[in-house]
Amino acid sequence: MDINISEAKAQLSKLINLAYHGEKIVICKNNLPLADLVWHQPEGKRKLGLLKGKFVTPPSFFEADPEIEEMFYGSDS
Question: Is residue 24 part of a domain?
Answer without folding.
Answer: yes
